[in-house]
Predict the structure.
Amino acid sequence: MLLKRLRFGLCCVLFSLPLSAQSADLDFSSTVRDDLSNKDLQRVEKITEPTQDFSKAERFEANQGGAATSTKIANRDAFSQFSANLDFKGEQDFKLGNALFRKLWVSSPSSTQASDGLGPLFNARACQSCHLKDGRGHPPEGDSDATSMFLRLGKTGTTEEEIKALENFVSATIPDPVYGGQLQDLAVPGLAAEGHMVITYQEQIVQLKDGTEVSLRKPEYSVSDLAYGPLHEDTTLSPRIAPPMIGLGLLEAIHPADIIKNADPDDIDGDGISGKFAIAREPDTDGLTLGRFGWKAENPNVRHQSASAFAGDIGISSPEVDKPFGDCTAKQEACFDLATGVQTRLGETEAPDPVIDLVTFYSKNLAVPARRNVEKPEVLRGKELFYGAGCASCHRPKFVTRRDTEDKAQAFQLIWPYSDMLLHDMGEGLADGQQVGIANGREWRTPPLWGLGLTEMVNGHTFFLHDGRARNLTEAIMWHGGEAENAKQIFAEMEKADRQALIEFLESL
């Protein structure tokens, strides 16, 4: 199968794609930027080289999002500011998009014009319900609900149609035949919700070299109260918390060549790191391009990520994902008997172009906050240790975005996301067993680290990783495995003062 062949390396990609994809817009073999003059290319290569001087902060290091960086005082709204370099119209569109991002959708029919169409099955009523304060979601704790966390459902392809859909990147995964692509624990009146996520934790004690004990909580996931019968026997459960929204437009503006050139799926350089780029189908052109967004990089751009969330999380259709019944399946007949929110006088979908346009613009222009304490000796020491442990091999510090991006606020900016945007094997401890595109059950996209240190201020918690199992940054590091095993071991063998310095560096991001 194609998905298996793609794992063997970048050199095989162009030859293993199906004939229909050979003419894709993106040249997956190109590692040279086509948006820069030779002079600018030399400048970019020089400024994005990893630093060797940890005696002082690098130039522009505090402005993680380039000229778009928010320099407002850090508080609970730190992730909700607009790009600092927006013009007046851009600021206006951002605020309109913010209103739509916060909008609570209601079931149909409703007297509230252009606000109905919720569900029929759903996980949340608004984008903001999952992306709390535009920040990081969390697993349910105590009496809190699971609104900002859900279970992705997926299985292997078995029919010829399913296998072709995977091979041609028409589908990133095959949904459960009864419950669809994710378990939805809410429903409109008159319809039963699909079921509920159940999490149990077991504490595992690991000991660091200096004798310090760290307790890691290992989660187990199951479902209860299934309303439409059992899940397929091959369906896997993949827990996902909502990731922070900051800097998405800047990540989209990274030139593909800068991502592709860092891929080393066969670990040719022998450093133990074998990242590979994700592949996704571009909805507008139907060509193949890089996957960038989602925990396994299954979505190619912010617009499609937003449209997918509208359909999957809220049950709202858009021009990109025209599913007015959301994630309802043929096995859930009652779903299709309910009214939708489509009003043809406004458009052919429940969230027509003006809506998805503005939500996309808002999502692309949530500013990255300025860093704190970049000149502090302990932070500089922690940065040196971060690099020395090999963390920067995957959490790549710097990029310069492309000159020719459509959104000028993101064009030609020096940014510091601390991500290579590649998929990496993170070991069995973090494995979910679910294939998504070319990402296997042990692989995850390197999450950007910018804004990491403001999580508690913005969201009131310090739960990290794709399912929030880590209760602090030390636990998050100690869950790393696979390609990150060596970096984890180096951290575990550090003296306490050095570990604290590395954590302090992460908290400055």
Q: What stands out?
A: Residues 88-102 form the longest helix (15 residues). DSSP finds 15 helices and twelve strands in the chain. Residues 74 and 369 are 8 Å apart (CA to CA).
